[in-house]
Every structure is written in structure tokens, then in C-alpha cells.
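Instructor's aside before we start: the two examples that follow are unrelated to each other. I chose them only because their records fit on one page, so don't look for a connection. First example below.
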Amino acid sequence: MHYKIYILVTCMCAALTVSAQVGVNTTNPNTDLDVNGFTIIEKKLYLEDPGESTQIRGSQLLIQRTDNSIVQYNLDVSKYGPINYAELVLKATNKSGVEDFDTKIPIDPYNVTLQGYYFLDNNNNGTSVITQSTNGDDKIEGFQAYAYKGSTTWHIKVFVNNSIFRVAGNDDIKVDIYINLIIFRKGLLAKEMNAIEVDLDEEVKGTAALPAGF
């Protein structure tokens, strides 16, 4: 009889030990592992079963600094976000548009895309800006607006081939160009892929090869 009681007590103690909570710098842990302070991961950190988040709002990213410490990524104090938005306003531009504007955003850490643009009359903020052909006919080409890589920084071009900006009764105007820029931080969320080049050989249909990793 005494032998059976000893076995029962031993099993109960083992169960309590397995389910115990561990605290670091705290005597009242609130979960299986409760760390009160900074944590440095020297090697690798494995999350075998992170589960699904039931609360997205207020969530934070963890990032590794150059000293290999893991810190919380705080947008409020960071110089940049993983995805950044900026409105670029080019005031009183030439009626031919913008041929080459240097944003000074470096190409190594960032990717830049144009997500939209519109034009206003610099004289009165009017929206009646149109284009007029410079070839002496009524053929107007479509707008071209894009960001492209310079030697070290991103550049902007906004123009219409063989045309100028104007309003009714006035060919000599200055235009304000409003551009929505999306600036992606490389290495955090955005990964730059190799260019996808497809020779259609004058066909109207085509298929691209699947990019590596997809």
C-alpha cells in the first residue's frame, strides 16, 4: 500500500513540474515563459507552432539589428516603414512636362513606384488641363509617367509625346503635377526580382515563365 502511494505522489509532482510557468526577472509569470526585460538571441529562434493571430491591430514586427539582437520594430520612432507613401508635388512645371526629376531616394535600399498622378493649372488650381499636339494635327498620345533608376537615385518622368499641356484659350501655362509615390524598403518586406523579358514576336498573346520562388 505504501508503495502505491509513493508512485501516485511522484506522478503528481512530475505533472506539476511540466505545467509550471517560468519567469525571468519576474516572480509572477503570466505564461509558460515570461521574460521581463530585453532578450538577445545568439543563434537561431524557432517558432514551431506560432498559431493564428486573433488580434492584428497593434501587432509589431521583430527585427534583427546589426549586433544580432532582436528588437521590436516601432514605426513611430523609425526613419522609414516597410511600405512608405509620399505625395510628390511638382509646382509650376514646364508645359512639356517633366523630363528628368531626381527624387534623391537611393536605389540600393528602396524600390519606388508611381501609383497615380493628376494635373492642376498653376495659375488657379483649375482641373481643366488638357494636352495639345505639337505636330499640327489632333492626334494626342497617352501620358507616360514612371519612376526609373538613375546612377544612384530614383528619377521621375511625366510627359506626353509630341504634345504640350494647355487650357482653353491659353497655350502658355504652368502645370502642377501631383504624384502618389509608394516607396518599398528592400530586405524587410519587398524583394527585388530579376526582370521578366518575353519576346512576343508580333503575337498578341504570350506566356511568361514562372519567376523563381513562386
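Example two begins here.
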Amino acid sequence: MERVIAYDWQKVEANHARLRELRAAAEPDLLLVNAHDPQLLDRALGRG
């Protein structure tokens, strides 16, 4: 689906690479939240 809607595929690939770097770093306080999931965002912000 991403390939269908992405405007700039190079930016998508760069974003994927950055997410892999963050995951590999395994920082204990790191929390990645999908911006399209309002329930997860509320939980991450302590609102739910």
C-alpha cells in the first residue's frame, strides 16, 4: 500500500532506515508511536 500512496519513495526508504536504526539502538525509554493510531498515541501520552 505504501508504494501506491507514497509521493517520494526516497523519503519513505530514508524513514524506514531511521526506524531500523532506532530499533537497533534499543534505548529503554524509546517509544515509537504510529501517528495514525490515536488510541496508541493516547496511551503513550498517558491519556488512556
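The CA atoms of residues 21 and 27 lie 11 Å apart.
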